[in-house]
Amino acid sequence: MTQGQGLVADVMVEDGTERSTKEAMLRGARCRCPSCGEGRLFSSYLKVVDHCPHCNEAMHHQRADDGPAYLTILIVSHLGAPLLLASFVAWRPSAMTMLLSFGLGSIILSLAMLPVIKGAMVGLQWARRMHGFGGRSSGVGA
Length: 142
Fold this sequence. Notes:
The chain is mostly helical and 142 residues long. Helices cover 47% and strands 4% of the residues. It has one domain (10-127).
């Protein structure tokens, strides 16, 4: 892979197998296994399964850590700030109304986006063969 290729390029390794980054990230964002797209990626709200229940792909290698939380905060704040300003200028609601509506909205949006972003990040790591995903896999799509 050359240095100029983008994030969605397919990753080719020595054994000739390719992993589509875009497809793996989309599968992960749907909270499905990035390898087969069938098995569930999470056993609970944010706990990644050790192995895919459908294709037995090992998922314990993932190292999403604080990345999904950081991206979620970044996206929610960049969506909320312009909306906060626009609604204040348009309707002039009370401070308590703004605090309650935008506080509740940001909490709900953050909780909804966090598993999606974490799944996409796990899919990216799987497709790019990061953190132990590069070895021979027992999965179907590897």
